[in-house]
Amino acid sequence: MVKLGAQEQNADGHLPGDFLDSASEVFLAKFRAWGPVAELLVAAGLWGFGFIATKWALEAVDAFEVSFLRFVLASLVGLPFLLAKPARAKFNEYARRSFVPALFLVATLTFQTWGLLYTSATKSGFITTLYVVFVPILELLLRGRRLPARLVLCVLSSFLGMLLIVGLGFSPLNFGDVLTFACALTAAGQIYWMGVVSPCVDRPFVFNIYQCVWSLLLTVPFLYGHELRTKIGHIAEWPTHALLGTLSLALGSTVIAFYLQVRAQARLSATVSSLMFLLESPFALFFAMMLLGESLRLTEALGAAIIFASALFATTFEKKD
Questions:
Q1: H-run or E-run covering 215
Q2: What tens digit of pLDDT does each residue of 86-98 get?
Q3: Where do the H-state alpha helices sit in 4-144?
Q4: Which of 147, 188, 242, 305 is the most buried (most CB within 10 A)?
Q5: How far apart (Å, rounded) are the C-alpha atoms in residues 100 and 155?
Q6: With pLDDT > 90 as the criterion, what percentage of the chain qualifies?
Q7: Residue 198 and residue 266 in contact, taking contact as beta carbons nearer than 8 Å
Q8: How confident is the model at residue 317 (pLDDT cuts 50, 70, 90)?
Q9: Would you list the domain boundaries of the chain?
Q10: Distance between CA atoms of 3 and 18, rounded to whole angstroms?
């Protein structure tokens, strides 16, 4: 080492700080590249736990009331952020842009809940995941985005993984299946449209709260207000799991997970995002085993592994258009 004033220089003429700067730049570049994947992985985990949380919440309220309460609580949590000056400046833009994703989101929950009155949870779970097929079709038809062959393989393999998870034996088609098919279409619409608007959003948390407020307003027509008021009046009698489930749906599955979706879809295509969302099923299986004492069949484990591998492989060559 030779002295250069107050700094030491290596024999090759580079300062030690240059190496640290270069290493940190590489680290930050890799973090930026994999950051959206990690965000959707966390979101999928929260949505996977949401299946358990919903089961707990349904011990105290019905399906439509669960949706209403999760959006009420999420909106209340986000209200201080909406009242802040920077958020008020974005009111017209975010209120306009968040309406369509919220509409698709409420339609998805409504069709899924309605369909479950007529069909099994297994068939509902499988049919809903058809969004992984519909999203790339929407991208092709509406944006002219052709999928690379490897990404098509990821979509098909993840579809196979979901088949293994839910089982291969199904009863004949019924009205509930048709409603659930509509749920898959609206879920694809929400994912696709979020991919369209999220690159224009510089405050994803605030944007998500606007989506929650719209969802709250759109959920109101499906409620019987008197019954819900009675149930809330007896909230002290709710099982502890029901309270925890409702809070988890509001804070984890709605405030945090949808915020991460808005952030991540600004940097990932809708098709790859939809593949990452499928990871909620393996997470749901894991949480069901740990918290509900459910067992895991070999085919379910294989299906979960296929979905996980397909989603991660898809992200390795993702290039945002």
A1: helix 204-219
A2: 888 888 899 999 9
A3: 16-57, 63-83, 85-89, 91-115, 121-128, 131-143
A4: 188
A5: 25
A6: 27
A7: yes
A8: low
A9: 63-316
A10: 16
